[in-house]
Amino acid sequence: xxxxxxxxxxxxxxxxxxxxxxxxxxxxxxxxxxxxxxxxxxxxxxxxxxxxxxxxxxxxxxxxxxxxxxxxxxxxxxxxxxxxxxxxxxxxxxxxxxxxxxxxxxxxxxxxxxxxxxxxxxxxxxxxxxxxxxxxxxxxxxxxxxxxxxxxxxxxxxxxxxxxxxxxxxxxxxxxxxxxxxxxxxxxxxxxxxxxxxxxxxxxxxxxxxxxxxxxxxxxxxxxxxxxxxxxxxxxxxxxxxxxxxxxxxxxxxxxxxxxxxxxxxxxxxxxxxxxxxxxxxxxxxxxxxxxxxxxxxxxxxxxxxxxxxxxxxxxxxxxxxxxxxxxxxxxxxxxxxxxxxxxxxxx
Length: 348
What we know:
The structure is a single chain. Helix content is 14%, strand content 37%. By secondary structure, the protein is mainly beta. It is elongated. The strands form eight sheets. Strands 11-24-18-28-16-13-12 form a seven-stranded antiparallel beta sheet. Strands 10, 17, 19, 21, 23 and 25 form a six-stranded mixed beta sheet that branches.
C-alpha cells in the first residue's frame, strides 16, 4: 500500500509515554503554510535519511514525516517538538509519534437514487437540466476568467464572503462585495422556484463558493455550519457528474463494527478512524448511520432545506468512477459546483 494512502494514529503508550516509531505527525507544517514537501524533507533530513513526507489531511497544515529508522525520529522530536524551528522561519512545530493503520471501509451496498423525492428526506430537491449547455458554458467561462485559490486537492473561488476552512465560518468583516453580475439571471431563476419559496427560513443568497473537483476528489461528510449560514443551501453542478451521499446518524453512542447487520438494509457503520488535530486516537468503535446517495448530473440544481440541510450529513465520495444502478459512470476531467448560501443575520 502506498504510504500516502495510509492513515496514521498515535501508538500505544508504555508507562505513560508513546512508544517511539519512525513516523512523526508534524502539526503547523505543510504546503498550505508555504512549505513544500521537498523543503520539509530537506529540513528533517538533518536528523537522518527521510523515507517520505506526506500530507496528513486535507488542510495542508500537517504532515507525516517517515524515517528509515527510529533514532532520527527521536532526535527530531526531542529537538523540535514545541520549539521554534529556524529552518521554517521560527515556526513552532508540534510532533507526535505515529503508526500507520489501513484505511477502514464502509460495509454494505449503497443505493443510489436518480430522483430526490424517492429518498424520502424532507427538504431535499433535485432539478435536472436547470440550465442549458450554452448557459453552462458561459458560467464556466466567467469563473475561469477570474483567479482561483488553490487548496490541497481542489481549487475554489469565493464571492460575497470568503469561507474560512480552518474555522468553518466566514469573516463578516471581510465583505467581498455583491455577487457578480453574470449570476443575475441564474439567481432570479432560483428565487422564483416554488421549492425555494416554500423552504423554511429562506433568505436572499449572498455567499457563493465555486469548487473545482478533479477526478477522484470529493468532500468529507459534513453539515454546513449553522452559526455561519442560515436557511437552505443551493448547489448547481457543472461540467461533470458525481454522486452525493447522505448520512443520518442513528445512534449517539459508539458501537462495535460487529454490531453491523446486513439485514438492516440502509443501516451501516462508519469505519473511518477518528483523530484529533494531533492524530491522538483511532477508534475501533463507530457510530451507526443511515446512508443513501443521489446522482447529480451536470446542469442539475440541488436544494437542501429542513432535514436535508440540518439532520443529514452530505458527502461526495472520493471516486473516479461512480456506480449508478449497475452502470459505471466515470467522473469528468473537472466538475465545478456553484454553492449558494445565506449568511446568518447579525443580532442587533
